[in-house]
Design goal:
Blueprint lengths: L2 E5 L8 H8 L3 E5 L3 H6 L6 E4 L6 H6 L4 E3 L7 H11 L4 E5 L6 H20 L5 E5 L3 E6 L3 E4 L5 E6 L5 E5 L8 E2 L9 E2 L4 E6 L4 E6 L1
Length: about 210
Amino acid sequence: MLNTIILANGEIPVHKNAIEILKNGDQIVCCDGAIQNLKSLGFSPNIIIGDLDSISEKDKIEYQNILFEDKNEEVNDLQKAINYCISNNWYDIYILGGFGLREDHAIANLSIMLNYAKICFEKDTPLNIQMITNTGTFIPFFDTTIFKSYKGQAVSIFSFTKESKLTFIGLKYPVKERVFNYFWEGSLNEALTDQFTIECSRGEFIIFQTF
C-alpha cells in the first residue's frame, strides 16, 4: 500500500523524524497554500489540491499538469486532500503541516482526522491516518490497541467519548476502567517499555506520542 503524504499549510516540518516521514512517502498531495513550504524543503508534489486561490500564477504554469481544483467552500483544503486520497484508495495517510501558525486550525484539523478515521472504521475500510508535528504524532483509535513505543516516551490520551472506560497497561501512571470527562485527564503519561496497551470499549480517541 502506498504511503501518501499530505502537506497542509501550517508549520513547516523541521524535526528529523518529520522530514524522514516526508522522504519516505511514495507520493505527496500538497494543499495549494503549502506549495512554497514544500519547495523550500526540496520536495516536489505529485498532486496540488485546493481551490487554487493560494498558488501563484508562476506555480500554476509550472505545475499545470498536476493541479486538482476543488471549489467546494463547505470543506477546507485538508479535507479536500483527504477526500482525494480516499477516492483513489490511498489509505496510508500521513498529514504534515497540520499544526502551527494558528491553534484553532490545529484543533479543527485534529477533529477532521478523527472524523475521517471514524467513518472508515465504521465501514471496515483499512484507513491508517496520522498527523505528524515537529514534536510527535497524533493517531486516532476506536477500540483496544497496542502501541509501539520506547521507555520514557511521553504519551497523552484524549477521549471524545465520555461513556467509554479506559485501562492503561505499560504506562507510568496506570488507570483501570476509568471514564475521562476532560481532555487533560489522560495527558502527560509515560511509556515504561517498548510498547503499551490502551484497553477500552468502543469510542473515539486520539493518542499523542512524542518523537
